[in-house]
Amino acid sequence: MTHSSNSQSKPSHPSRRSLLRYMAGGSLGAIAMVFSRPQPAAAQDLEELCSTFPQNSRCLDYLPGVQALDAAGEAIAVDAFLPTTTPGIPQPVQGLPNVTYLVIQEGPAIAPYGLRPVCPHRGCAVIWQADQNRFACPCHGSKFDAQGRVLRGPARKPLPLVTVVERQNQIRLVDRAPSIDPR
């Protein structure tokens, strides 16, 4: 006895039309995901550019970082600040999470970098010793000159830097080292 079946069986593989439908839907979904991703704001891009390369022509009117403040928390104006400084004597300012020392050059002028008063040997806070014109680490005795260079170890590296930008009569502190160590 032969058993016959009247039912038609569907092919087990998808049709071309279904395959094209899946491919088109997947492509549109991928495109939608790319455009729905949050894009960085232009200000963030400009902050990155002007923090890394403050002399870039696109940054002439842009104020990167944060404004330097005096001990009372007041904004520091360059034209009022510089006449009160002495070249070779670092000046403490606020603005970043910890104090930053501005390096004062001949002129007087503000150097394009500031010093973080943190000893690279073990991370102790260094202290400016005005009578000896140097920074000293109270933990292990390292000594640094007014530009943050090592005078005596055990520290082998100079004090870490931040970028300082002088623009629109403001002193701006950028929480990153200059691209080239100017010391």
Automatic annotation (TrEMBL):
UniProt KW keywords: 2Fe-2S, Disulfide bond, Iron, Iron-sulfur, Metal-binding
Cofactor: [2Fe-2S] cluster
UniProt xrefs under InterPro entries: Rieske_2Fe-2S, Rieske_2Fe-2S_sf, Rieske_Fe-S_prot, Rieske_Fe-S_prot_C, TAT_signal
Ribosomal protein is among the record's keywords: no
Signal peptide as annotated in the record: none
Annotated Pfam families: Rieske
Sample GO molecular function, one term: 2 iron, 2 sulfur cluster binding
Cellular component terms (Gene Ontology): membrane
Ranges where the Rieske domain occurs: 77-173
PANTHER family, per the entry: CYTOCHROME B-C1 COMPLEX SUBUNIT RIESKE, MITOCHONDRIAL
Protein name from the UniProt record: (2Fe-2S)-binding protein
Annotated source species: Phormidium tenue NIES-30
Taxonomic placement: Bacteria, Bacillati, Cyanobacteriota, Cyanophyceae, Oscillatoriophycideae
